[in-house]
Amino acid sequence: MIRRKTIQCDLVLQTVNNLRCHATADEIYETIVKEHPRISKATVYRNLQRLCEMGEIRKREFPGGADRYDHICSDHYHARCVKCGRVFDVDMEYMKDIEQSIRDDHGFIFTGHDIIFKGICKDCSNKQQIYDADAHS
Amino acid sequence: MIRRKTIQCDLVLQTVNNLRCHATADEIYETIVKEHPRISKATVYRNLQRLCEMGEIRKREFPGGADRYDHICSDHYHARCVKCGRVFDVDMEYMKDIEQSIRDDHGFIFTGHDIIFKGICKDCSNKQQIYDADAHS
DNA sequence: TTACCTGCAAAGTCTTTGCACTCTT
DNA sequence: AAGAGTGCAAAGACTTTGCAGGTAA
Protein backbone atom coordinates (compact mmCIF):
# COMPACT_ATOMS: atom_id res chain seq x y z
CA MET A 1 0.00 0.00 0.00
CA ILE A 2 1.91 2.99 -1.32
CA ARG A 3 0.91 6.46 -0.22
CA ARG A 4 0.26 8.91 -3.00
CA LYS A 5 0.91 12.59 -2.84
CA THR A 6 -2.33 14.48 -3.23
CA ILE A 7 -3.29 18.12 -3.11
CA GLN A 8 -5.86 17.39 -0.43
CA CYS A 9 -3.34 15.71 1.87
CA ASP A 10 -0.93 18.63 1.49
CA LEU A 11 -3.72 21.07 2.24
CA VAL A 12 -4.66 19.22 5.41
CA LEU A 13 -1.07 19.14 6.64
CA GLN A 14 -0.49 22.81 5.83
CA THR A 15 -3.72 23.80 7.52
CA VAL A 16 -2.93 21.88 10.69
CA ASN A 17 0.43 23.63 10.79
CA ASN A 18 -1.00 27.05 10.00
CA LEU A 19 -3.70 26.78 12.63
CA ARG A 20 -0.91 25.90 15.06
CA CYS A 21 -2.16 23.62 17.77
CA HIS A 22 -5.51 22.12 18.67
CA ALA A 23 -7.58 22.47 15.52
CA THR A 24 -10.58 20.21 15.23
CA ALA A 25 -11.35 18.33 12.02
CA ASP A 26 -14.23 20.70 11.45
CA GLU A 27 -12.09 23.82 11.86
CA ILE A 28 -9.57 22.36 9.45
CA TYR A 29 -12.29 21.54 6.96
CA GLU A 30 -13.88 25.00 7.22
CA THR A 31 -10.51 26.64 6.64
CA ILE A 32 -9.71 24.56 3.57
CA VAL A 33 -13.17 24.71 2.05
CA LYS A 34 -12.97 28.51 1.71
CA GLU A 35 -10.21 28.12 -0.87
CA HIS A 36 -11.14 24.68 -2.18
CA PRO A 37 -14.92 24.36 -2.13
CA ARG A 38 -14.88 20.85 -3.61
CA ILE A 39 -13.03 19.15 -0.74
CA SER A 40 -15.14 16.86 1.40
CA LYS A 41 -15.05 16.40 5.12
CA ALA A 42 -14.48 12.67 4.71
CA THR A 43 -11.25 13.46 2.87
CA VAL A 44 -10.15 15.71 5.70
CA TYR A 45 -10.81 12.94 8.22
CA ARG A 46 -9.04 10.36 6.07
CA ASN A 47 -6.00 12.54 5.59
CA LEU A 48 -5.81 13.46 9.25
CA GLN A 49 -5.76 9.77 10.04
CA ARG A 50 -3.12 9.13 7.40
CA LEU A 51 -0.92 11.99 8.61
CA CYS A 52 -1.12 10.61 12.14
CA GLU A 53 -0.02 7.20 10.94
CA MET A 54 2.86 8.83 9.08
CA GLY A 55 3.84 10.68 12.24
CA GLU A 56 3.43 14.09 10.63
CA ILE A 57 0.78 15.24 13.08
CA ARG A 58 -0.63 14.04 16.36
CA LYS A 59 -4.21 13.36 17.30
CA ARG A 60 -5.32 14.54 20.71
CA GLU A 61 -8.59 13.37 22.11
CA PHE A 62 -10.44 15.42 24.67
CA PRO A 63 -13.28 14.38 26.96
CA GLY A 64 -16.61 15.68 25.81
CA GLY A 65 -15.41 17.31 22.64
CA ALA A 66 -14.14 16.71 19.14
CA ASP A 67 -10.67 15.35 18.53
CA ARG A 68 -7.98 17.92 17.86
CA TYR A 69 -4.82 17.77 15.82
CA ASP A 70 -1.36 19.12 16.59
CA HIS A 71 1.70 19.50 14.48
CA ILE A 72 4.34 17.45 16.23
CA CYS A 73 5.78 19.39 19.11
CA SER A 74 7.12 18.52 22.51
CA ASP A 75 4.92 16.75 24.99
CA HIS A 76 2.81 19.09 26.99
CA TYR A 77 -0.46 19.27 28.87
CA HIS A 78 -3.69 21.01 28.04
CA ALA A 79 -6.37 23.04 29.72
CA ARG A 80 -9.91 23.09 28.47
CA CYS A 81 -12.24 25.98 29.11
CA VAL A 82 -15.51 24.68 30.48
CA LYS A 83 -17.35 27.71 29.03
CA CYS A 84 -16.17 27.88 25.42
CA GLY A 85 -14.56 24.45 25.00
CA ARG A 86 -11.33 25.84 23.59
CA VAL A 87 -8.09 24.11 24.49
CA PHE A 88 -4.92 25.83 25.60
CA ASP A 89 -1.37 24.68 26.22
CA VAL A 90 -0.30 24.59 29.82
CA ASP A 91 3.08 26.04 30.70
CA MET A 92 4.29 23.27 32.95
CA GLU A 93 7.03 20.69 32.98
CA TYR A 94 6.17 17.33 31.40
CA MET A 95 6.35 14.61 34.03
CA LYS A 96 7.86 11.83 31.99
CA ASP A 97 8.49 9.68 35.05
CA ILE A 98 5.00 9.99 36.49
CA GLU A 99 4.30 6.28 35.97
CA GLN A 100 6.83 5.59 38.72
CA SER A 101 4.44 7.17 41.22
CA ILE A 102 1.97 4.38 40.66
CA ARG A 103 2.00 2.09 43.65
CA ASP A 104 0.56 -1.11 42.18
CA ASP A 105 0.12 -1.55 38.45
CA HIS A 106 -2.26 -4.56 38.84
CA GLY A 107 -0.68 -6.01 35.69
CA PHE A 108 -1.45 -2.96 33.58
CA ILE A 109 1.31 -1.94 31.18
CA PHE A 110 1.47 1.84 31.09
CA THR A 111 2.54 3.46 27.84
CA GLY A 112 1.76 7.12 28.36
CA HIS A 113 -0.39 9.69 30.04
CA ASP A 114 -2.21 12.93 29.56
CA ILE A 115 -3.18 15.61 32.02
CA ILE A 116 -6.18 17.70 31.23
CA PHE A 117 -6.82 20.73 33.37
CA LYS A 118 -10.18 22.37 33.39
CA GLY A 119 -11.15 25.88 34.21
CA ILE A 120 -12.17 29.16 32.67
CA CYS A 121 -10.12 30.94 30.06
CA LYS A 122 -9.20 34.62 30.12
CA ASP A 123 -11.76 35.58 27.47
CA CYS A 124 -14.61 33.80 29.20
CA SER A 125 -13.80 35.19 32.64
CA ASN A 126 -13.68 38.69 31.12
CA LYS A 127 -17.06 38.13 29.50
CA GLN A 128 -18.40 36.85 32.80
CA GLN A 129 -17.30 40.03 34.57
CA ILE A 130 -18.99 42.18 31.92
CA TYR A 131 -22.15 40.11 32.27
CA ASP A 132 -22.07 40.41 36.07
CA ALA A 133 -21.57 44.16 35.83
CA ASP A 134 -24.54 44.44 33.45
CA ALA A 135 -26.72 42.28 35.63
CA HIS A 136 -26.07 44.43 38.66
CA SER A 137 -26.51 47.80 36.95
CA MET B 1 -38.52 22.85 39.98
CA ILE B 2 -39.09 20.13 42.55
CA ARG B 3 -37.52 16.73 41.98
CA ARG B 4 -39.86 13.79 42.18
CA LYS B 5 -38.94 10.36 43.38
CA THR B 6 -39.33 7.81 40.61
CA ILE B 7 -38.61 4.13 40.28
CA GLN B 8 -36.43 4.81 37.24
CA CYS B 9 -34.22 7.29 39.06
CA ASP B 10 -33.73 4.86 41.94
CA LEU B 11 -32.88 2.09 39.50
CA VAL B 12 -30.25 4.22 37.80
CA LEU B 13 -28.62 5.18 41.09
CA GLN B 14 -28.65 1.61 42.38
CA THR B 15 -27.21 0.31 39.15
CA VAL B 16 -24.38 2.85 39.10
CA ASN B 17 -23.54 1.82 42.65
CA ASN B 18 -23.85 -1.90 41.95
CA LEU B 19 -21.67 -1.73 38.87
CA ARG B 20 -19.11 0.01 41.08
CA CYS B 21 -17.06 2.43 39.07
CA HIS B 22 -16.87 3.40 35.43
CA ALA B 23 -20.11 2.16 33.93
CA THR B 24 -21.20 3.76 30.69
CA ALA B 25 -24.78 4.91 30.14
CA ASP B 26 -25.24 1.99 27.80
CA GLU B 27 -23.99 -0.57 30.33
CA ILE B 28 -26.30 0.93 32.92
CA TYR B 29 -29.23 0.81 30.51
CA GLU B 30 -28.51 -2.80 29.48
CA THR B 31 -28.34 -3.83 33.13
CA ILE B 32 -31.63 -2.19 34.04
CA VAL B 33 -33.52 -3.25 30.92
CA LYS B 34 -33.10 -6.94 31.79
CA GLU B 35 -35.35 -6.45 34.82
CA HIS B 36 -37.41 -3.52 33.53
CA PRO B 37 -37.88 -3.92 29.79
CA ARG B 38 -39.97 -0.75 29.48
CA ILE B 39 -37.27 1.71 30.56
CA SER B 40 -35.87 3.87 27.81
CA LYS B 41 -32.31 4.94 27.25
CA ALA B 42 -33.36 8.60 27.27
CA THR B 43 -34.60 8.13 30.82
CA VAL B 44 -31.29 6.63 31.82
CA TYR B 45 -29.42 9.60 30.35
CA ARG B 46 -31.79 12.08 31.98
CA ASN B 47 -31.50 10.47 35.38
CA LEU B 48 -27.73 10.19 35.15
CA GLN B 49 -27.65 13.92 34.48
CA ARG B 50 -30.02 14.62 37.33
CA LEU B 51 -28.06 12.46 39.77
CA CYS B 52 -24.89 14.34 38.80
CA GLU B 53 -26.57 17.67 39.51
CA MET B 54 -27.74 16.33 42.84
CA GLY B 55 -24.19 15.23 43.63
CA GLU B 56 -25.17 11.58 44.02
CA ILE B 57 -22.86 10.37 41.27
CA ARG B 58 -20.07 11.79 39.20
CA LYS B 59 -19.70 11.92 35.45
CA ARG B 60 -16.29 11.14 34.03
CA GLU B 61 -15.55 11.87 30.42
CA PHE B 62 -12.89 9.95 28.58
CA PRO B 63 -11.19 10.80 25.31
CA GLY B 64 -12.48 8.74 22.45
CA GLY B 65 -15.14 6.86 24.37
CA ALA B 66 -18.48 7.12 26.04
CA ASP B 67 -18.90 8.98 29.30
CA ARG B 68 -18.75 6.89 32.45
CA TYR B 69 -20.40 7.31 35.81
CA ASP B 70 -18.97 6.80 39.29
CA HIS B 71 -20.57 6.67 42.65
CA ILE B 72 -18.92 9.44 44.62
CA CYS B 73 -15.60 8.31 45.89
CA SER B 74 -12.27 9.95 46.54
CA ASP B 75 -10.46 11.67 43.70
CA HIS B 76 -8.30 9.32 41.75
CA TYR B 77 -6.85 8.83 38.31
CA HIS B 78 -7.72 6.37 35.58
CA ALA B 79 -6.03 4.19 33.05
CA ARG B 80 -7.66 3.25 29.81
CA CYS B 81 -6.76 0.10 27.93
CA VAL B 82 -6.07 0.93 24.31
CA LYS B 83 -7.13 -2.57 23.27
CA CYS B 84 -10.45 -3.12 25.02
CA GLY B 85 -11.33 0.45 26.05
CA ARG B 86 -12.04 -0.50 29.64
CA VAL B 87 -11.12 1.95 32.36
CA PHE B 88 -9.30 1.09 35.56
CA ASP B 89 -8.50 2.99 38.72
CA VAL B 90 -4.88 3.88 39.19
CA ASP B 91 -3.33 3.27 42.60
CA MET B 92 -1.53 6.58 42.95
CA GLU B 93 -1.66 9.59 45.18
CA TYR B 94 -3.95 12.41 44.02
CA MET B 95 -1.88 15.51 43.33
CA LYS B 96 -4.23 18.13 44.66
CA ASP B 97 -1.59 20.86 44.44
CA ILE B 98 -0.55 20.13 40.87
CA GLU B 99 -1.86 23.49 39.64
CA GLN B 100 0.99 25.11 41.57
CA SER B 101 3.44 23.55 39.11
CA ILE B 102 2.05 25.69 36.31
CA ARG B 103 4.52 28.41 35.51
CA ASP B 104 2.29 30.97 33.80
CA ASP B 105 -1.47 30.69 33.88
CA HIS B 106 -1.99 33.18 31.00
CA GLY B 107 -5.13 34.38 32.77
CA PHE B 108 -6.68 30.93 32.88
CA ILE B 109 -8.49 30.07 36.11
CA PHE B 110 -7.82 26.42 36.91
CA THR B 111 -10.54 24.52 38.73
CA GLY B 112 -9.43 20.93 38.50
CA HIS B 113 -7.54 18.31 36.59
CA ASP B 114 -7.60 14.75 35.42
CA ILE B 115 -4.82 12.38 34.55
CA ILE B 116 -5.55 9.64 32.10
CA PHE B 117 -2.97 6.95 31.66
CA LYS B 118 -3.04 4.71 28.67
CA GLY B 119 -1.68 1.27 28.18
CA ILE B 120 -2.66 -2.36 27.98
CA CYS B 121 -4.61 -4.12 30.69
CA LYS B 122 -3.73 -7.48 32.20
CA ASP B 123 -6.42 -9.36 30.29
CA CYS B 124 -5.43 -7.91 26.94
CA SER B 125 -1.71 -8.50 27.44
CA ASN B 126 -2.50 -12.12 28.37
CA LYS B 127 -4.57 -12.52 25.23
CA GLN B 128 -1.76 -10.99 23.22
CA GLN B 129 0.71 -13.56 24.58
CA ILE B 130 -1.63 -16.38 23.70
CA TYR B 131 -2.05 -14.97 20.22
CA ASP B 132 1.72 -14.60 19.80
CA ALA B 133 2.29 -18.16 20.98
CA ASP B 134 -0.29 -19.46 18.49
CA ALA B 135 1.17 -17.43 15.66
CA HIS B 136 4.65 -18.87 16.24
CA SER B 137 3.59 -22.47 16.65
C1' DT C 1 -3.08 0.71 -16.48
C1' DT C 2 -3.27 0.02 -11.59
C1' DA C 3 -5.01 0.75 -7.37
C1' DC C 4 -4.91 4.58 -4.21
C1' DC C 5 -7.65 8.65 -3.36
C1' DT C 6 -11.70 11.62 -3.69
C1' DG C 7 -16.53 13.34 -3.18
C1' DC C 8 -20.89 12.15 -1.87
C1' DA C 9 -24.21 10.03 0.79
C1' DA C 10 -25.38 6.84 4.15
C1' DA C 11 -24.54 4.75 8.37
C1' DG C 12 -22.69 4.34 13.08
C1' DT C 13 -21.87 5.81 17.95
C1' DC C 14 -23.07 8.47 21.75
C1' DT C 15 -26.18 11.88 23.54
C1' DT C 16 -29.94 15.23 23.59
C1' DT C 17 -34.56 16.88 22.61
C1' DG C 18 -39.65 17.37 21.23
C1' DC C 19 -43.98 15.55 22.24
C1' DA C 20 -47.85 13.35 24.15
C1' DC C 21 -48.86 10.53 27.92
C1' DT C 22 -48.29 9.01 32.84
C1' DC C 23 -47.34 9.38 37.25
C1' DT C 24 -46.01 11.75 41.85
C1' DT C 25 -47.29 15.12 44.94
C1' DA D 1 -55.28 18.98 39.15
C1' DA D 2 -50.55 20.58 38.11
C1' DG D 3 -46.43 19.74 36.19
C1' DA D 4 -42.25 16.75 36.65
C1' DG D 5 -40.91 12.42 34.67
C1' DT D 6 -41.40 8.77 31.09
C1' DG D 7 -41.15 6.28 26.54
C1' DC D 8 -40.60 6.81 21.89
C1' DA D 9 -38.75 8.61 17.89
C1' DA D 10 -36.24 12.01 15.72
C1' DA D 11 -32.40 14.89 15.58
C1' DG D 12 -27.73 16.46 16.59
C1' DA D 13 -22.61 16.22 16.96
C1' DC D 14 -18.71 13.82 15.52
C1' DT D 15 -16.66 10.21 12.78
C1' DT D 16 -16.40 6.26 9.65
C1' DT D 17 -17.54 3.63 5.54
C1' DG D 18 -19.36 1.99 0.87
C1' DC D 19 -19.21 3.07 -3.72
C1' DA D 20 -18.40 4.89 -8.26
C1' DG D 21 -15.53 7.81 -10.54
C1' DG D 22 -10.94 10.47 -10.60
C1' DT D 23 -5.99 10.65 -10.64
C1' DA D 24 -0.93 9.89 -9.30
C1' DA D 25 2.75 7.00 -10.68
From TrEMBL, chains A, B:
Binds 1 zinc ion per subunit. Pfam families: FUR. This is Transcriptional repressor. Keywords: DNA-binding, Iron, Metal-binding, Repressor, Transcription, Transcription regulation, Zinc. Zn(2+) binds at C81, C84, C121, C124. Fe cation binds at H113. Its cofactor is Zn(2+); Mn(2+); Fe(2+). Belongs to the Fur family. Coiled coil: none annotated. GO terms for biological process: negative regulation of DNA-templated transcription; regulation of secondary metabolite biosynthetic process. SUPFAM superfamilies: Winged helix' DNA-binding domain (SSF46785). PANTHER family: FERRIC UPTAKE REGULATION PROTEIN, ZINC UPTAKE REGULATION PROTEIN. One of its GO terms (molecular function) is transcription cis-regulatory region binding.
